[in-house]
Amino acid sequence: MLLAGDIVDKDNRYYETIGILETGIRKLEEVGIQVIGVAGNHDYKTLAAIADEVSNFTLIGRKGAWETLTLKKKDREALQVCGWSFPQEHIRENPLRDFPLERSQHLPLIGLMHCDLYSSESSYAPVSIADLKSKEVTAWILGHIHDPRELESQPPILYSGSPQGLDPSERGEHGARLLVLDTSGNVTHTLIPLSGLRWETAEISADHIQDEDDFRKLVNEELIHLSNRLDLSENSPIAVGYRLRLTGRTRACRQLDDWAALAGNEMQREIEGIHYFYEKIINETKPDLNLEDIAKTKDPPGLLAKKLITLETKEPVDTYRELISSAEASLNDVYHNPSYQVDEPGQTATEEEVRKLLIQSGTYALEQLIAQQGEEI
Amino acid sequence: MKLETLTINQMPGFSQGGPQLENLSNGLNIVVGTNGSGKTTICKAIKGLLSRESLNRVKPVDISSRWKEDTKNTLLERKGNTIRCQVNGIDREPDVNLPRHLANCFTITHDELNVSGHTHQQLTEDVMRQTAGGYSLRDLKENDSRLKPGVKHGRKDLRIYQEKTSELRRLQGEQEELLQEENRLDQLELEKKEARKAEKTLEQLRKAGELVECRDRMDLVRAELDEFPAGMKRFQGDELEKLEEIKKDTESAKEALEQERKKREKAKQQLASSRLKEPVSKASLDRNRKRLNHIRSLESTVSDLKRRENNQLARLQKAGKDLSAVQSAKELDRIDVKKLDKIETLYDRSVNLKEKKSAIAGQIERLAGKKRQMPSETIREGITRLREWLRIPETVTSSGLLPVWVIWICAALIASFAVYMAVTLYIWAYLLLIPAVLIIVASIKRRSSDYREQRDHVSRQYLELSLHEITSWTLEQVQSTLKNLEELYIETRNTEQELLNRERLKQEFLKIQKKEEEISVQWKEIMAEMGIDLSISELSIVQFANRLIRYHQCRDEWTGIRGERKTVEAELSESLEAVNQFFKGFDYPVCKNSGDVEGTLIDLEERHQLFAVNSAILDDCEEKISRESEKLSEYDKRKRDLFNRLQLDPSGEDILKDRISRLEAFQTAHQTFQNLKNEADLLKRQLKRTPEFIDLERDEIAEHEAEARDKAEQFNAIVEQIEKIRYKVEQAKQSQKIEAAIEEVERCRDRIYQNRQEALFAASGNLLLDLVASEYEISAQPPVIQEANRLFSLFTNGRYSLRVDTNEQNSGDDFFRAYDNRQELGLYLDELSTGTLVQLLLAIRLAYVTSTEGEKRLPILLDETLNSSDPERFGAIAGSLLKLVQENARQVFYFTCQPVDARVWEHYAQKENYRNTTTINLDRISSEQKALQTPLDLSEFKGEEIPAPGSRDLAEYGEVINAPGFDPASPIGDLHLIHVMDTPQQLYDLLQTGIRTWGQIQTLIERNVTGQFISDEALTKAGAKAKLLKSFARSWRIGRGKPIDRDTLLDAGITQNFIEAVMEVVARVNFNAAALVEAMENKEVSRLRTDTITSVKEKLIDEGYIDLKPVLDKEEVLGRVLGDMADDIDKEVIGRREVFKIIERYWHAIHKVA
Prior knowledge:
The complex is a heterodimer of chains A (377) and B (1154).
Chain A: E1 2-3, H1 15-30, E2 35-37, H2 46-53, E3 57-59, E4 67-73, E5 76-84, E6 109-114, H3 129-134, E7 139-143, E8 149-153, E9 156-159, E10 175-181, E11 187-193, E12 197-205, H4 212-230, E13 239-247, E14 249-250, H5 253-266, E15 268-271, E16 274-283, E17 286-287, H6 291-294, H7 300-313, H8 317-336, H9 351-371
Parallel strand pairs in A: 1-2, 2-3, 5-6, 6-7, 7-9, 12-13, 13-16, 14-17
Antiparallel strand pairs in A: 4-5, 8-9, 10-11, 15-16
Chain B: E1 2-10, E2 20-21, E3 28-32, H1 39-50, E4 62-69, E5 72-79, E6 82-87, E7 90-92, H2 100-105, E8 107-109, H3 110-113, H4 120-131, H5 137-143, H6 155-183, H7 185-226, H8 239-273, H9 282-323, H10 329-334, H11 337-367, H12 376-391, H13 401-424, H14 433-463, H15 475-530, H16 538-584, H17 594-645, H18 653-686, H19 698-712, H20 715-734, H21 737-775, H22 782-795, E9 800-806, E10 814-820, E11 825-827, H23 834-853, E12 860-863, H24 871-886, E13 892-896, H25 899-912, E14 917-921, H26 922-933, H27 939-943, H28 954-960, H29 984-992, H30 998-1007, H31 1016-1037, H32 1046-1052, H33 1056-1068, H34 1073-1081, H35 1090-1102, H36 1114-1124, H37 1126-1130, H38 1136-1153
Parallel strand pairs in B: 3-13, 3-14, 8-12, 12-13
Antiparallel strand pairs in B: 1-2, 1-4, 4-5, 5-6, 6-7, 9-10, 10-11
Helix pairs in contact in B: 4-23, 6-20, 6-21, 7-18, 7-19, 7-20, 8-17, 9-16, 9-17, 11-15, 11-16, 12-14, 12-15, 13-14, 16-17, 22-23, 23-24, 24-25, 25-30, 31-36, 34-35, 36-38
């Protein structure tokens, strides 16, 4: 069993996680499976501590020095694993610069590493695919990115991903990778789904929603569609959490917030033994208003509609810029308000965020304004 | 643009067709209709025609309308979202398409013009709002929760976040401490080992101390042992007892020896008295005992045989006597017994045959004389002929039908052919008809002659049999004859059977005769053989034969018994001889019978017994004597050995006693010494690892001990400390506290982000609203203000005009002032009367509409605007609108549910001298439309006509007009006037004008126009009665709660998912809220949560649908009503007695219904 780092989160890296991890490693020991790992930026301290405690776990590449381990099968050398562990939380250099490796040429070699492939400026061991490919390694198993993904097929370079989607945005199948080495030294790999809870997201149009019944029908059917789409008959998790994004234009735009909040709790189904539920229903619908028509008048709704058109089209540019800059000023007050500051002092909104906020709140205000004159049947 | 006709084909609520409005006025249109009759739908339909955006999500929509503007006739139709416009018959784009929010501005509602009690500031806001078409930015900014977050928004969540963060830090700090403690574990383990070692040293030292102690005690015991004489170790302590025992044994052996010697002498004497030299063998005694039994048995057999022999002899002699008359005994013996048996058999057969013969002779006799007239076969033949005759059919039978038909069809074909040929070709072809007819005749004749011939033939056959003559061959005659013949046949068959039987019996009779002859021949032969005279009767011979057989039997039996007796007697004498031979050896006399033998044998057995017993005693005594002698020498040896072992002289018994008395003390001292020695050895072994401790002195040990104790005492504390740390680590590994705390912090963080997002939303929204507000300034709207000013002057007949000032002192805001032209005085808005204020608001709204609508003058819709208006407001609005329509510039629609409002409008129109008013009764339109759709059902249409009361009293009239009863649960406004009017005529007058309920009268009172409809006196009385019934209803409702309805339940928290199920229960419990709650609590509505039921219940109690107070009885109700009515009674508007009567009547009526 190879662990590619960040097995433990830094915030609770001590006993609470050590306990669980230790139990797991000991269980593997009972069935004769050796565990080899490298440390990531989150668990650079913790894994070392566990490796000292548990005999079945070998941490390789301590102190940021590459290390190779030769594994035997039936008393014969069969495989080599080389690895590098984070010596501290932030590593801005490419660890592959020190990749020395005197290796046995007749044995397959698996590279195990925790690194960031997506930014050369990263503080988490920046590495490039070209660097990885330049090394004579049979397969690279990487940690850091939670989504399981294959970056290269020959030689295989893959992020193993977390065994469980930690966040609803980490959708799809998660699990462990089974590497199979054949006698000629080729590696194939398959994903073994492990996650009990699977996340899925989707975006659908809510144009046709007129009332709560329409909405309930939609969310109810959407769970069934999801189950049909996923076809989890073979690798069934315990539960599937669904994040649904509603878009389009509907007159029920405002009520959707309330209905969505209620439905989030109520709409869950048991389909073929799997529990489907809504993690969140995000209402991004727009009210069914014809801004062009409203903007024809010079009354408050007309003026407001004009502003919204400006925000949406960014035309005329001067007016648009003026709107954004005055909004930035007043929104900065909110950002600097101590009641809303947590741990990112000095944060401000981007122009696009400001624009979106203005459109959102302006649309809401326009709707409320028009509602002052009564509702349609 | 004026609406001329409007047809609603389909709208929500009117899917089968809605109201159709025609002949609309181009001025004021008053649309009256009860709720649900379509007022609001008409309002929306007009909006939907003018604004494509309106109704764009509504289904179904199908409206058509006709509009007029100067010379332009416009047809506007809307189906779904498609609007079709035709102007003067030409399709084109509609002139008017208002944005939805603007379309709304053409509808003015009650709330918008209801400004009574508003301050100047509020009124300014109201006016501002109207200048903006009814839209208020300020209202939105100040009242919308999303745009105006609270002052403390987010603070609480921040505080919670800080608390949770510090909690997390605390937990992480604890974990850091634990980590440090865990690092100390190695050191502690070392200390623990040291302490454990010290503990062991302490233990060794304790043992060393014990060793020193042990050695001291050994010295003391050794000195004590030295004082005892030597050889004490050889004593075991039981030596005296052993000596006593030996002495006792010796004495008893001597005594036994003496006794045995005496017994030996006595046995010798007894042996001599048996007179036997050696014992008799047991086998010979047993053999002779058996012989004795055999002799006894033989003796008994002999005597039995003798008795039988004598008996048989007596029988033989008797049989001899019976035969002695015939022959001597010797002769009798000669006769062959077998032949005698045969004689008897022949005799029996002969008798049998004779009986059979006489029976057969009797039967033959009985059958003699039977004769037959003619053979039965002939009769049967006759019967067959007659039956055959009867079977021959008289007419054509079915069996002959087919060929006849075939012939006839052929004939018909020929005939048809003939006719055809004759008509088409040749007239002479008719001749072919002749053969056809001939064929038919021939076929009929042939059938008839066949049948007669058959019958003649059969009758001839019958006559040949010479049976009963048949005079005429008719059906009856033949059937009668047939019956007679059948009877005769049966009789003749019986007779023939009997004759056959007689022949058979005769044959048998002859056979018996032949057998008798055979027996007679045999009989004679035997008689001759035996020489018996044939003259002797057969019976005598048989009797003789029987006696002779008995004689022979007796003689044979006697001879047998005698022979047997002799054989047994010989055997008996042999047995006696053998026994005597045995006894001879013991000098006994000869025995003659079993008695002698038995006596002799018993004596011999006694002698034998005496000899055997004493021989055994003698042997035993000899053996015992020798054994006791051996014992005596053994005891002597043991005594000598005992003294030898103790190394004492056998005579030194006193010394022995002395040593034994000191032995216990010696042994105790010796044992103590041994124990101490063992203990010392053990301790030495235990101290083997620390040999240096073995020879330590006491003070040295104490010194070492003090040192080790100090170290050892720390052990427990160290162990405890280690365990505690390990436990804490284990606990921490099992715990989820930090995980949970992190989650809490994350949740709080999310909440703060959410708060910030809300604040950003509000800030950005407010920014936009502020920008819009700054752009939209009243003073920048001159067209609206000018038009408002013009309309305001128009509505107030030129008395007031509108002015806009800027308040320089107060932040430069615009504000309005009404200028009183008559007094030349500027007035703040709150200084205006309600009527003037309403006129101002209306003027501004209309001005706004005018300024935004473009060139077209579109209709203004007032939806229930004047409901519950006071007379001043009503008058002001009505007057203003009448002025507006008088300008002929605009069409106005006024929608109301109060039929009386139409009357009031007419009243004002008359006052303003305005004629162009149309009243539309939607209820009437609806019923007319229904009547048109279903022409047979005219009842509803008739219902509109009120019958005159005639001579009926109020109650009778109520039945005629089908007036509803008094329902105390309904609002007093719905009360039918029959309950408050005094006379049928008064009621009729009101009903005719469309006034049916007390609520309508109240409206008239509010409008101050009652005089036209009802006299003051009748109104006062009706008012008092209404008050009485209101009071009654209020009291009656106590404890009963209001009837529940759907909207209330929705408001109370029943969701759309459950409302249908709940309403089913509501209908079942007769709209009783308390019963509904009870039903819900009993789970009659499935899946409804308990907390929902509780909250619904609480709301229903709060809102009076469930009244927990006790119900009042009649007297209590009466008391309360009398209290309420005290003033009216005093003023003699209504009499006390009448109050009693009314209460009595309605109480009874309500409870009867219940």
